[in-house]
Amino acid sequence: MNTDSSITKIPDKHDLYELCVQNPEALIPLLRAIHGNDPKALCEDFSGTSILSHTWADLSESHHAIAIDLDQEALQKHPAHPRVEKLHADVNDATASGDVLFVGNFSIGYHHTRAELIAYLKQARSRLQESNGVFLCDTYGGEGSFVLGGVHRPTPMGDGRLCRYTWEQRDADPLTGMVTDVIHFRVEHAGNIIEEYDDAFVYHWRLWSVPELRDAMLEAGFAEVQVYAKLADAIDDEGNAYISPVEDPQDELDDSFIVLVAARVS
Ligand SMILES: C[S@@+](CC[C@H](N)C(=O)[O-])C[C@H]1O[C@@H](n2cnc3c(N)ncnc32)[C@H](O)[C@@H]1O
After folding, report:
1. Is ligand 1 within 6 A of the CB of residue 181?
2. Per-residue tens of pLDDT for the chain, all 266 residues
3. Is any ligand 1 atom within 6 A of the Cβ of residue 48?
4. Is 139 in the pocket of ligand 1 (CB under 6 A)?
5. What are the domain boundaries of the chain?
6. Closest atom, ligand 1, to C-alpha of 103
7. How would you write the chain as a 3-class SS string?
């Protein structure tokens, strides 16, 4: 989570999204540990501002990333990085290759039909290193997955201001799997509302279940699929993650959960 106070001067919705939603410093150790063989090249599909790619490329001079998004404003949020290539493109047309291909914050749900999902996954598989490439995406599930309502989280902005982040599930149809998820931000100082961003981001997604993703990944040609809980405490002080696939869901997953689904090329 970015708590750099310099971004709080004139926050736009992308600044607030990075502050309240993203945590690349915690995510990257998980991606590297799940890959397991010192990956250097990241493809970040549906990248938004590409902050994950920037943070990845900052790991060392041999790390590099390709970020792909349809939103040019989001892609241009951060200045150019010598080891981050940004592609203003549809991920369905992407050919960029890497060791890890990551799709974050439930963006796999932009594929609304199984045919679209499998076509994308086949293409994704062809973009990964034949020896040890890994495709990773997240999804949510469990008893709350089709429940309507909001989750609120206050996030300090580092200069006395507070951003109240709301995740709202506005619509959810368990018969079609379609959901409408909405993000709102409210910036406050000393109890006063400074700025409000209602409906800052509105997503119409298919909420794919873990077994649906697993079946589609195997049908798309991946050799093996594993599921990992997104555990913050899996990371030690040096930023190394120790994580193993979920073996006992009743024991290891909460009633409502977020997981990373990993599909291995070989
Ligand atoms: C939920 S945001 C994800 C941002 C970031 N990856 C994260 O983990 O928080 C989804 C992003 O997907 C982009 N997007 C949606 N459909 C796309 C497509 N077909 N090709 C490329 N980008 C797409 C949107 O512009 C938006 O920036």
Report:
1. no
2. 444 444 446 689 999 999 999 999 999 999 999 999 999 999 999 999 999 999 999 999 999 999 999 999 999 999 999 999 999 999 999 999 999 999 999 999 999 999 999 999 999 999 998 889 999 999 999 999 999 999 999 999 998 999 999 999 999 999 999 999 999 999 999 889 999 999 999 999 999 999 999 999 999 999 999 999 977 677 887 878 888 999 999 999 999 999 999 999 99
3. yes
4. no
5. 12-142+207-264, 149-205
6. 6
7. CCCCHHHHCCCCHHHHHHHHCCCHHHHHHHHHHHHCCCCCEEEEECCCCCHHHHHHHCCCCCCEEEEEECCHHHHCCCCCECCEEEEECCHHHCCCCECEEEECCCHHHHCCCHHHHHHHHHHHHHCECCCCCEEEEEEEEECCCCCCEEEEEEEECCCCEEEEEEEEEEEECCCCCEEEEEEEEEEEECCEEEEEEEEEEEEEEECCCHHHHHHHHHHCCCCEEEEEECCHHHECCCCCECCCCCCCHHHHCCCEEEEEEEEECC
CATH ID of 12-142+207-264, from 3.30.70.260, 3.10.580.10, 3.40.50.150, 3.40.50.300: 3.40.50.150
Q: Letter for the amino acid at 81? A: H
Q: Which of 81, 13, 96 is nearest to 48 (CA)?
A: 13
> Closest residue (by CA) to atom 9 of ligand 1?
105
Is the model's pTM score more than 0.85?
A: yes
Other CB atoms within 10 A of residue 260 CB: 23
